[in-house]
Amino acid sequence: MNIFVLLKKTFDTEEKISVSNGQIEDDGAEFIINPYDEYAVEEAIVQRDAHGGEVTVVTIGDEDSEKQLRTALAMGADKAVLINTEDDLDEGDQFTTAKILEAFFEDKEPDLILAGNVAIDEASGQVGPRLAELLGIPYVTTITSLKIDGEKVNIEKDVEGDVEVIETSLPVLVTCQQGLNDPRYPSLPGIMKAKKKPLEELEIDDLDLDEDELEPKTKTTDIFLPPEKEAGRVLEGEIEEQVQELVSLLKNEAKVL
Ligand SMILES: Cc1cc2nc3c(=O)[nH]c(=O)nc-3n(C[C@H](O)[C@H](O)[C@H](O)COP(=O)(O)OP(=O)(O)OC[C@H]3O[C@@H](n4cnc5c(N)ncnc54)[C@H](O)[C@@H]3O)c2cc1C
Fold first, then answer.
1. In angstroms, what is the span from residue 14 Cα to ligand 1's centroid?
2. What domains appear along the chain, each with residue ranges and CATH number?
């Protein structure tokens, strides 16, 4: 089976990220594989071991994304591809990302594409579904179980705590949700082997793409943190006085009555 994983590098949410001038400042932050993409890598390895074939991990990023790709190779993926846009594109959005991936898949004939449910940094959850639409293949989001029997695919999907069972066929794109599996940690031999596994680097020219075709369709105009919580106020006096003051505050200050 020809299995692909879409992998995004994100900053570690344990890191203290600041926002300045409407931009996230992630200088010096630790970067990791988007946690939902770890479920995708794990599932790809499980399906390959059950049905044969190979797992290719693909990311659109910069030179530093090689680290996350090597981690996926150490987990057990067979090949990695870095589409490095650093020198060619200054801006991009979900449209750009999906368009680049569409061009990448043009000659690939994938059977199964696995993505994360959302990226924890920008969290639009758009890249997987957009790519499937562009490739004209079925997609199922937030999956928690995947069974493949020949061309037939049986999927369980998380629906706000309920489970939906879906039948479809290969080729298919799925986005992975917590509960699908327990991603393995790379083993020491896995880390050693990963150093020798193929990691191909492409630029947008290699995909016959033109910068004009990739112009983002959206622009983020501002990003800001929620206002800091103010300390609570303790009302004093007799209970009747407290009730009167509370009603007055709700009416005149909070303006919720
Ligand atoms: C050339 C370029 C320039 C960009 N410039 C900026 C910028 O200046 N400012 C900014 O804030 N953002 C920028 N972005 C990032 C972009 O806005 C989104 O982060 C990106 O399209 C993914 O959207 P998302 O984070 O909402 O992912 P989601 O749709 O939530 O991600 C879901 C899943 O899609 C897959 N996926 C997502 N992104 C990638 C990827 N890059 N490679 C492989 N798989 C992926 C993963 O499996 C992921 O789990 C740029 C992107 C590109 C391609």
1. 20
2. 2-214 (3.40.50.620), 229-257 (no CATH)
- Nearest residue to 114 via CA among 97, 95, 139, 96: 139
The model's pTM is 0.90
CA of residue 242 to ligand 1 center, whole Å: 51
Residue 38 — very low, low, confident or very high, per pLDDT cuts 50/70/90?
Answer: very high
Whose CA is closest to atom 28 on ligand 1? 125
Q: What is the CA radius of gyration of the chain?
A: 23
Choosing from 7, 8, 141 the residue with most ligand 1 atoms within 8 A of its CB, the one to mutate for a pocket test is 8
d(CA 136, CA 79): 25
Instruction: Ligand 1, residue 10: give the atom nearest the CA.
Output: 25
Cβ atoms 3, 56 nearer than 8 A: yes
